[in-house]
Amino acid sequence: MSAPLDFGGAVLLVVADIPAGRVMTYGDVAAELGSRGARAVGRVMATEGSSVPWWRVVRADGRPPEGHEAEALAHYRAEGTPLRGGAAEHDPHTYRLNLQAARWAPS
C-alpha cells in the first residue's frame, strides 16, 4: 500500500494532466482537490511547479503566472492556447487568456 499524496503532490498531479492548449486557474486546481486554497496552489506552483507545465495554471482573470508572462506567452503560442482579443500582439505583460475557450476540467 502506497502512502497518500500530500497537497503539493496532488497539485502537481492535477497540473501534469492539463492538456496542451488548455488551462486551469489556481482556484480550479484547488477545487479539483476539494479545497478552497487557491493561494496554497500558488505556493506549491512557486516552489515545486517547475517539473510540470506551470504555464497552464493561470490567475482567475486570465492573466499568466506573475513574473513569467513572456516565457508563458511563448508556450501559449506554441500550444495554440486561446488568447483574448489581439492579446498575442501586445505587451507580454498585459495579455490575457481566453478562459471561456481555454479552461479545462478534468472530469
What would the principal axes of the Cα set say about the shape? globular
Mean pLDDT: 91
**β content, as a range?**
under 5%
What would you call the structural class?
mainly alpha
Please give the radius of gyration in angstroms: 14 Å
Count the DSSP helices.
5
How are the elements arranged and paired?
Blueprint: H1 7-16, E1 24-25, H2 26-32, H3 38-48, E2 57-58, H4 69-79, H5 99-102
Parallel strand pairs: 1-2
Structure description:
With 107 residues, this protein is mainly alpha-helical. 40% of the residues lie in helices and 4% in strands. It has a two-stranded parallel sheet. It is globular. The model has no long low-confidence stretch (mean pLDDT 91).
Supply the key terms.
mainly alpha, 107 residues, two-stranded parallel ribbon
Short note summarizing the structure:
The protein is mostly helical and 107 residues long. It has five helices and two strands.
